[in-house]
Amino acid sequence: MPSVDVAAARARIAGGQIAYDALHVIASCGDLRPGLARVLDAFEVAGILSNDERRSVIAGEPDVDDLVSGWFTGDRVPRAGNRRLARQAAIVVANALLRAATERVGAPSTWRGWTRVVCPCCGGSPDIALLERGGHRTLVCARCDAQWRAPRTGCLGCYQVDAPVLARIENPALGYDLVMCNSCGRFLKERPRRGFESLLVERAITLELDLAAEQRGLRI
Ligand SMILES: [Zn+2]
Ligand SMILES: [Zn+2]
Questions:
Q1: How do residues 56-83 score in pLDDT, each as one tens digit?
Q2: Which end of the chain has less neighbouring CB within 10 Å, N or C?
Q3: Is 45 domain-assigned?
Q4: Ligand 2 centre from 138 Cα, in Å?
Q5: Rg of the Cα trace of the chain?
Q6: Residue 59 Cα, ligand 1 centroid: separation in angstroms?
Q7: Domain boundary residue, one of 70, 105, 140
């Protein structure tokens, strides 16, 4: 269970600061290797990797803390198969721990007045935007799944709102738009909230959009 000082976290949000330090929260959870092994087991059951690949990843003794901090600092997805699979599993572990930490901070009403682009809880960047019926967007933190109202329309990095600087590639099969800013290099995956499934599933089916954006040198 991640350790979070809830009162201090809420006071920080009220003062416009992020609730907790994500690396401290992860460190409070101790050894992440058993969690990584369980996620790799689940990946095998789900057919994401083979039995041989799972054994090979474990035999490589991946440094989970290193993979998680690389994810936090926006490392590119590794090319090598094993390291890539280990990173993918480490992200599932860290995401689950941070989601639990954010749930302890409170309900989304705790950060209703939040007007920044970074996550009110962990300071991460959003990777998904949900289009609400009222016309505004709700941002979803890529690290901890916190949701908050987008402070502005268009690019979150630089205020661009018009094509071709803000490019939109529709993917009807996935039900997502990949929105990319050619000015500041940010991207976001956008879709209507209606029909939205669990974030774990949504991220798994849209992984190809992230890779396409990364290949263009973009980041969330
Ligand atoms: Zn977050
Ligand atoms: Zn921009």
A1: 999 999 999 999 999 999 887 777 788 8
A2: N
A3: yes
A4: 18
A5: 18
A6: 32
A7: 105
